[in-house]
Amino acid sequence: MIQTIRGFRDILPEDTALWQAIEKSASELFEDFGFQEIRIPIMEKTELFARSIGETTDIVEKEMYTFPDRKGDKLTLRPEATASVVRSYIQHNMGASDPVQKLYTIGPMFRRERPQKGRYRQFYQINAEVFGISSPYIDAQLILILNELFKRLGLSELKAHINSLGCKECRPAFQKELLSFLNGKKEHLCENCLRRMEKNPLRTLDCKVPECRAALADAPSTLDHLCSGCSDHFETVKSVLNEQGVDFTVDKTLVRGLDYYSRTTFEILTTALGAQSAVAGGGRYDALIKELDGPETYGIGFAIGLDRLADIVAQVVNSSSVEEREAGSQSKFMKLLYAKVPDIFIIPLGEKATRLAYLWSSSLNIAGIRTEADYSGRSLKSLMKRADRLNAAHVLIAGDQEIEENALVLRNMKTKEQYFITAENPVEEIETLLNRV
Ligand code: HAM
Question: Is the Cβ atom of 301 under 6 angstroms away from ligand 1?
Answer without folding.
Answer: yes
